[in-house]
Amino acid sequence: MGGIAYFPGFVEISNMSTRRTVRVAEVLRKELAACMSQSLDLEGLIITISSVELPPDMRQAYIYVSTLHPDLEEEQALHVLNRNRKAWQSFIGRRLGLKFTPQLLFRFDRAVERGDRVMEILTKLELEKENPSAAKPEKP
């Protein structure tokens, strides 16, 4: 059974200029999570909405998602999300009552992978610090 991980209050605000865009992004996130949780297409996939970014004109909404197994599920998840995009966009538009409903654009979030790589490097450096002779191969 699929699931949607939702982190309340986590909306990417680095490129947002107004309180309204922040509020709309948060509402979009909640509504989209509800749509996704009811979608039978997503069964078997665990998708996390990691952030929602809205430019000031609010014409597009960049939805960053990740999966439990990115190597195996990234392409499948993006395909299913994009296939349902217009229906969800229409539903959300009716619920929000905005003049323009932002176009939903799904992107795969690589932050978790980058974080894992950083942790791997830090662990390796720590091991080298504890045991410097094991890290450097001996010359014959």
Written account of the structure:
The chain has helices spanning about 20-40, 70-95, 110-130, 130-135, and strands at about 5, 45-55, 60-65, 105-110. By secondary structure, the chain is of the alpha/beta class. It folds into two domains: about 5-110, GMP Synthetase, Chain A, domain 3; about 110-140, no CATH class. Mean pLDDT is about 80; it is low at about 10-15.
Fold blueprint:
Layout (H helix, E strand, L loop, with lengths): L2 E4 L12 H20 L7 E8 L6 E8 L2 H27 L6 E6 L2 H20 L1 H4 L5
Parallel strand pairs: 1-2, 3-4
Antiparallel strand pairs: 2-3
Helix pairs in contact: 1-2
Summarize the structure.
The chain is α/β, with parallel strands linked by helices and 140 residues long.
How many domain regions? 2
Number of helices: 4
Any idea what the radius of gyration is?
20 Å
Unreliable spans = 12-16
Task: Name the helix and strand elements from N-terminus to C-terminus, one letter apiece.
Answer: EHEEHEHH
Q: Decide which structural class fits the backbone.
A: alpha/beta
Across the major sheet, the strand order is: 1-2-3-4
Between the first and last Cα atoms, what is the distance in angstroms?
56 Å
The CATH topology of the largest domain comes to GMP Synthetase, Chain A, domain 3
The average pLDDT value, as a whole number, equals: 81
Largest sheet: 4 strands, mixed
Shape-level CATH architecture of the largest domain: 2-Layer Sandwich
Q: Please tell me what the overall shape is.
A: elongated
Helical percentage: 40-55%
Specify the CATH class of the largest domain: Alpha Beta
The CATH fourth-level homologous superfamily of the largest domain: K homology (KH) domain
